[in-house]
Amino acid sequence: MPDPNPVPASEWPAFVALAQTLNANYVRSHHTAMMMWTVAYSWYDWMWYAGKGLIVANTPWSGHYVVPDALWLVAHTTQAVQPGWRFAGRDGAKLLADGLGSAVSYVSPDGSGLSIVVETANSRANQTLRLRLGGSFVALPRLHVWRSVAGDVFRRQAPLALRRGQATLQLPPAAVLTLTTVEGMQKGGQGATIPPPANFPLPHSDSFESYDDGAMPRFSSDLHGAFSIQSGHGGKVLRQRTLLPPTCTHCGGSTNYVTAMGVSAAAPFASSLGLNEAAEQDGAMVDYRVRVSGRLVPGPQATQGYLYVASHIGVMLEYAATKDGNNTVQGCSASEGTGQLSRPPFSSIPMCNWGKDGFQPNYLHATHSVPGCVLQLEWNTSGWAGAAWTLRAGTSGACARSCPSRTVATGRLPDLGALGSWVALDLTAKRSSTPGGNTTLRAAVNGTRLGAWEVPFLAEARGAIALGNGVSGCPISEWDDLQITAK
After folding, report:
1. pLDDT range class, residue 183, cuts 50, 70, 90
2. Are 299 and 441 in contact (CB under 8 A)?
3. I need a surface site. Which of 45, 76, 428, 487 has the fewest CB within 10 A?
4. Structural domains present in the chain
C-alpha cells in the first residue's frame, strides 16, 4: 500500500489493487484467509514502511487521523461478509471475460444471504457482467449495490433488479462493486470532527513511573530491540530486554538496539527544475535539548559495551526531479548510484547505516541527506578506567544508503564509574539564526560539560531522538528521567 497521508489521486490504482488481492487470493490460489499488516499505521513516517495501514494515526498527541480510500475498498468485502459465511465455491469465483478482473461470491451459514465482490483493477475499458444465480437465490428480487471508483468511494447505488436470478450490470474499469443481500452497510465517519495535526509536544518529559511493567512509553517506537517498562532504579525504568541480535531485513545486520521518539521533517516535493530547500514541517523537532539517565546492565561475562543518545535523526527530503522530467534519487539502487522512480512521491528511505562503527545518525532521502548527531559512551573494563566518549554528526549532501558520519570530538572520563553505573547524558543542537549558518552542538555527561562545537554540516538539524546501546558486550540497557526541551 502506498503512503496514504495524504492520498494522492494518482495512487488510486494501488488502492484498488488491494481489493483485487482479496479476490485473487481465492480465485487464483484458493486461499480462504488473509491477514493485513497493519490495520493502523501508527509509527513515525520517517521509519520503514511509511503508510502501511488501513488508517493513519501517527500523531497520537494530537488525536488526528486519516481514513484512506483503502479502508473502504476492504469494506466491500468485510461489511458484506460476516463470520461464519463461506465461499460459494469455484462456480462463484471467476475471472471476468477480459481476464483482468474477478468476482468472488460468499453465502451465509443458513443459505439465505449472498454477497458478490467484483473488481476491475486492471481493466482498461467498460465491460458487461452477466449474472445468473442458482438454487434459492433465483427467487431474489434484487441485490443492493455498492461501488467505488476513483474520487467516489463506497457509494450506494440503485438496487440491481433480478429476473429469475438473472441480470446484467455495466462495470467501469479500475472499480470495485459489491452486490449483496446484506442490509445496513454504511460508510462510517461522515460528519465526524477530526482534530487537526499538531506539533510534537515540547517540552516532553517522562519518568516512566505511570506505566505498568511491560508497557511501552508514550510516543516511543522501537527500531531494533525491545524497549519496555520494568520496575527498578528505585521505581520504573525503560529497559532494553532482548538478548538476541536484531535481524535486519534491509541491511546486512545491526550492531545496535535503539528506540526513537519525535517527529522529523521533510522538504516538499521537488519542482521540475530541481530540489527545493528543506522546509519546516508541522511537528518537526528543530532546535532542542535532550537529557536522559541511562546505564548498561552488566552480565557475568560482560567486560565492555556502549551506550548512546542521539538527536535530530530521521530527516529526509521527498525526491528530486531532473530537468528532463525523470524522477531520480541518489543512492537508491543496489549499486548505490542513481535510481529511477516509477512515479512520485518517493516514500522514505530511513535509517542509513547501523554499521560496525556504531550508530550512524544519518538518514537518506533523495539527493540530500539531513544529518543527526550522537553522543556515545563506551566502557572497556579490561583496558582502562571509566569510559570513552565520542560525539559524531552526519554529513549533508548527496550520499548512498550508508551515509557517513563525522567524528566531531572524542575524550575520556576516567571518573565516570564502572560498567553498570548510571550516567546522565545531555545533548543539545541549535541552529544559527542566519540562513545557511552553523549549528552549535553542546554535550555533557553527569553535569560535566564536554564542550561546544560549531558544525557547518549540521546546519539543517531537525528530527527525532534515539536511545540505545550496542548488541555485543552488555545488550541490556536501562533509561530514566527523559527530558526534551526546545531551545
Report:
1. very high
2. no
3. 487
4. 9-180 (3.20.20.80), 204-486 (2.60.120.560)
The H-assigned helical ranges of 5-152 are 12-27, 69-78
Q: Extract the C-alpha cell encoding 117.
A: 465482490
Separation between Cα atoms, residue 441 and residue 431, nearest integer Å = 9
Question: Long-range pairs for 86-94 at CB < 8 Å and ≥24 separation?
Answer: 87/26, 87/32, 88/114, 91/134, 92/116, 93/23, 93/26, 93/27, 94/27
Amino acid found at 344: P
What pLDDT does 401 receive? 38
Could you tell me the CA-to-CA distances from 353 to 45, 138, 249, 255, 280 in Å, in that order? 18, 63, 13, 10, 25
Distance CA 257, CA 255 (A): 7
Q: What is the mean pLDDT of residues 63-91?
A: 91
Residue 116 has pLDDT above 80, yes or no: yes
- What's the distance, CA 31 to chain centroid? 28
In the predicted structure, residue 404 carries a pLDDT above the cut 60:
no
Is pLDDT at 240 greater than 90 in this prediction?
yes
Q: Tell me the one-letter amino acid at 368.
A: H
Handedness of CA 244, 250, 252, 258 (dihedral sign): negative
Distance of CA 123 to the CA centre of its chain: 31
Nearest to 237 by CA among 266, 264, 259, 270: 259
CA 449 to chain centre: 36
Distance CA 203, CA 128 (A): 60
Angstrom CA distances, 99 to 21, 80, 123, stand at 14, 24, 8
**Inter-residue contact 94 to 153 (CB < 8 Å):** no
* pLDDT value of residue 385: 67
Cell 547501523 belongs to residue: 354
DSSP, collapsed to helix, strand or coil, labels residue 139 as helix
User: Can you spell out the DSSP letters for 47-76?
Assistant: STTTT-SSEEEEETTTTEEE--HHHHHHHH
